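Could you help me review a protein record that somebody else here produced? What it holds is a sequence and that sequence's fold in token form. I have pasted the whole thing underneath without changing anything:
=====
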Amino acid sequence: MSKGNSPEDERPIEDVSQDVPEDVSEESRPSVGRALQQARIAAGLTVDDVSSATRVRISIVHAIEADDFAPCGGDVYARGHIRTLAKAVGLDPAELLARFDAAHGGRPAPTPAAPLFEAERIRPERRGPNWTAAMVAAIVAVIGFVGFTFVKGDGGGSEASVAEGSQASAGATASASAPPKKPADPKPDPTESAIAAAPRDKVTVKVSATEGRSWISVKDHSGRQVFDGLLKEGDSETFQDDEKINLVLGDAGAIQLYVNGKKIEDDFQPGSVERLTYTKGDPQVG
């Protein structure tokens, strides 16, 4: 009598491959570098864009996308670059780091703290006598002794010095009581002399900044710009023309004018702008 299969034996054999898809999918997933590259391209970014955004060098970005992590300088730095690049292209850094750790022997162990270091007691060095200090002290003592001897033995010399000092004081007093010398006459200003001797067939204008600084503009009879600039306090400029001179004073109150050798006594106000014209027949304002 043949023995038949029991119902349990007739059950279909379970497909063992059902447990495999996880491993198969793990192998089919792209590598860390490939995943970063695909995400970058999908985001429409270039390697230059990612490098600029993350400050990771272009060469290292290319190397990581090719799964070459040697240029990173170690696993710790590689993990840091992966995390940075993943955030830049919109991937989950944790998943990529887990794949990287699995392919490179697990997550690197934290660096142990440095052991406490007990400083070794240092024996004090034997020091010989400080000859430098002794020599300096001896020199100071010699100088002090010589100075004391010189002061003590120079009593007569001190009296002579006092007498000479008294004579010098008397001479200084006599000099002070003497009447002061009359100061020399000041030399004439060559510019004033030149204006006083201005030719009658021309118009001569001197502009002096006596009360401050002022911008001035000067044109000749043809309208040509002769001067355009700033006169600082104490500065002077002299201008001549065959027919007339046109002036613009930015701060007329700071300016003193001499026209054909004569001082202009116009009461210009500080900060006022004046437009003036002078001819050969002035000092009247034109």
Remarks:
- The first strand starts at residue 203 and ends at 209.
- Residues 167 and 173 are 10 Å apart (CA to CA).
- Strands lie at 203-209, 214-219, 225-231, 236-241, 244-249, 255-259, 262-263, 274-279.
- The chain is about 40% helix and 15% strand.
